[in-house]
């Protein structure tokens, strides 16, 4: 049994998980150099670091441009790194998308395009379709983020409002060979969902996008509503011969990170219950389920025996009801603390593997058996903070935020509950 404190164990597991899915994994998946030019493009929170690693290893001529989130740049010499806004797109993202399309224009069958994709790429490749303004896309993005829509639903809409997503970048690269190297941040590792699938076929349709809008009752800008109704240019679908030049290679995924953490936990002497990398739903509801499992282990030593660890990944959602600050992981932990209600021996960490929980400066936060008591001593009621979606404010007051800075990878959420 480890002599580390519970917080030290949880942090070690998070670090091991992140280290297992670093961009260096792309070195095992590089294609051979072409007869002609090599152009690198891409987008995502890990795109700049992926570009740095690639250009250091590439044996020949290289050029290109990638887009990443503000603060996530990495030093490169031949590949230009542009920064833009995430999760709500901005003009810098539009400019980056235009530059990427320009970079792949006019290529031949002797040329190679390497596309580097990771989570966040959808917002960073924010070039609107003809007739739609950036302000229109920003408004749709805000509504989608606030309504609790899943990432697949958001991307179905984004693809049909875009000039580059949903396979359109792949069409622009033809006839050059296209190899996409991707880090998955989505449940199921579906290439069509990662960064809204700019280099693969899109199985969704305009009708699917309209169904998402209707499901959540979104109030669309007139130009967006008109575009979705007109269906001017459907995205390329599976089997489309125009994508025959495109290849997709997944270099890192959420399950790898969880397996690495599981192995380390077992080495430290913990029995592990791995719930998988596909957990979805409202963060506060997912927390209740995790709390129920934790109580079963604490009371019955089943389905695993203490000292035990519950591990899970995936991507929860938050329906905004209040005006507080925080992301889905701090919301999960706030609800978990309430549900556990000071359960002795229960400690937890939840964090986003990219180092940013939502739009704040923290990766996530911690809870312990005394979390609610310490909050009460400061005049804080966890129930009030949860009602206001203010997980960030709650854990900041307790000095229990986990702040890592950008990790330069992104395989979704990491949740770990220790039971001693």
Instruction: Please count the helical segments.
Output: 15
Number of domains: 2
Number of strands: 12
Unreliable stretches covering 5 or more consecutive residues: none
CATH topology of the largest domain: glycerate kinase, domain 1
User: Radius of gyration in whole Å, from Cα?
Assistant: 22 Å
Mean residue pLDDT: 95
What order do the helices and strands follow?
Answer: HEHEEHEHHHHEHHEHEHEHEEHHHEE
CATH architecture of the largest domain: 3-Layer(aba) Sandwich
| Spatial sequence of strands, sheet with the most strands | 3-2-1-4-5-6
Q: Report the helical percentage.
A: 25-40%
Distance between the termini: 11 Å
Shape: globular
Largest sheet report: 6 strands, parallel
- CATH homologous superfamily (4th level) name of the largest domain: MOFRL domain
Q: What is the CATH C level class of the largest domain, in words?
A: Alpha Beta
Domain MOFRL-associated: 10-228
GO molecular function: ATP binding; glycerate kinase activity
InterPro entries: GK-like_C_sf, GK_N_sf, MOFRL, MOFRL_assoc_dom, MOFRL_protein
Keywords: ATP-binding, Kinase, Nucleotide-binding, Transferase
């Amino acid at each position: 049994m480890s002599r580390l404190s519970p917080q030290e164990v949880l942090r070690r597991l998070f670090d091991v998980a992140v280290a297992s899915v670093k961009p260096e994994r792309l070195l095992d998946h590089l294609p051979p150099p072409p007869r002609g030019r090599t152009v690198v493009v891409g987008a995502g929170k890990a795109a700049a670091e992926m570009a740095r690693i690639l250009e250091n290893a590439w044996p020949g001529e290289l050029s290109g441009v990638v887009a990443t989130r503000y603060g996530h740049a990495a030093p490169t010499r031949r590949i230009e790194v542009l920064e833009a806004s995430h999760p709500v797109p901005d003009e810098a993202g539009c400019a980056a998308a235009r530059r990427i399309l320009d970079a792949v224009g006019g290529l031949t069958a002797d040329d190679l395009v390497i596309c580097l994709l990771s989570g966040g790429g959808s917002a960073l490749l924010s070039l609107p379709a003809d007739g739609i303004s950036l302000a229109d896309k920003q408004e749709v993005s805000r509504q989608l983020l606030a309504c609790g829509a899943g990432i697949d639903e958001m991307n179905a809409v984004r693809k049909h409002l875009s000039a580059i997503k949903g396979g359109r970048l792949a069409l622009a690269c033809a006839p050059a060979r296209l190899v996409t190297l991707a880090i998955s941040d989505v449940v199921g590792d579906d290439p069509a969902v990662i960064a809204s699938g700019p280099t693969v076929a899109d199985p969704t349709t305009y009708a699917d996008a309209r169904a998402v809008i209707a499901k959540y009752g979104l109030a669309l800008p007139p130009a967006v509503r008109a575009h979705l109704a007109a269906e001017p240019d459907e995205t390329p679908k599976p089997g489309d011969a125009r994508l025959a030049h495109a290849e997709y290679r997944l270099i890192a995924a959420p399950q790898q990170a969880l397996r690495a953490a599981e192995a380390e936990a077992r080495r430290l002497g913990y029995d592990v219950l791995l719930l998988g990398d596909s957990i979805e739903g409202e963060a506060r509801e997912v927390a209740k389920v995790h709390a129920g499992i934790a109580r079963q282990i604490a009371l019955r030593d089943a389905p695993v025996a203490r000292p035990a660890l519950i591990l899970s990944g995936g991507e929860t959602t938050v329906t905004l009801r209040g005006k507080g600050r925080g992301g889905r992981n701090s919301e999960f932990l706030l609800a978990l603390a309430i549900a556990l209600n000071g359960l002795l021996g229960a400690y937890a960490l939840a964090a986003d593997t990219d180092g940013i929980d939502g739009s704040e400066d923290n990766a996530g936060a911690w809870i312990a058996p005394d979390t609610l008591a310490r909050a009460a001593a400061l005049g804080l009621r966890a129930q009030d903070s949860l009602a206001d979606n203010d997980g960030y404010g709650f854990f900041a007051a307790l000095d229990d935020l986990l702040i890592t800075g950008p990790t330069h990878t992104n395989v979704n959420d990491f949740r770990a509950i220790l039971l001693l």
